[in-house]
Amino acid sequence: MSLKQALLGIELFEGLSDSELEAVITLCEERSYSKGDIIAEQGNPGNEFYIIIEGFAEISVDSEQDAPRKLVVNLGSGQTAGEMSLVDQGPRSATIRAINNPTTVQVIQQEAFAELCENNHKIGYIVMRNIAADLSFRLRQRHLSDLG
Q1: Strands (E), the chain
Q2: Apex CA 53: angle with CA 35 and CA 115, to 5°?
Q3: pLDDT of residue 67
Q4: Phi-psi bin for 139: left (phi > 0), alpha (psi -120 to 50), beta?
Q5: Is the predicted pLDDT of residue 1 greater than 70, yes or no?
Q6: 75 closest CA partner among 104, 47, 46
Q7: pLDDT digits 0-9 by tens, 93-117
Q8: Cut 0.85: pTM above it
Q9: Would you list the domain boundaries of the chain?
Q10: Under a CB-based contact definition with an 8 Å cutoff, are residues 107 and 48 in contact?
Q11: Partners of 29 in the beta sheet?
Q12: Does the domain spanning 3-147 belong to CATH 2.70.70.10?
C-alpha cells in the first residue's frame, strides 16, 4: 500500500485535495519496528501521530501497578494511533507495541503538523473538524452505552 493510498483511507484526512494530501505526505517519516518494540509508551508526552503501513501494532493500557496490561485493540495496515497528539502534547493514554516483523509506520510530528496548519489553514480546519467529529461520535456512543 502506498502512503497516498493509506492517507486516502484515513478519516482524519477526509476532504483534503490531492495537493493537500501531498503536503501531509512531506511530513511523514518512515520507521520500522521489530516484534515487541515499543512505538509509544503510556504516560510519555504525545508528540507523534502514527499510520500503520505494514504489519500490526497492539494498543494496550496499564491500569494498575501490578496488574497485567489490558489489550485494547490490534491495528493493521492503514489504521492510525496517536491522533490526539496532533491537538495537544498530553501524556499518552496507552502503549503502542509492534506485534510482528517488520511493523512499518509513517510518523507525523506534532510540531511539523502545527506548522503546516499555520501555513495552510484549510488543512488545519479540515483535520481538526474531522478530529472533532470523531470525538463527538465517541462521546455520544459512550453516553448512549452508559444509559443502556
Answers
A1: 29-33, 38-40, 48-54, 57-61, 70-75, 80-81, 95-98, 103-109
A2: 115
A3: 67
A4: alpha
A5: no
A6: 104
A7: 899 999 999 999 999 999 999 999 9
A8: yes
A9: 3-147
A10: yes
A11: 107
A12: no
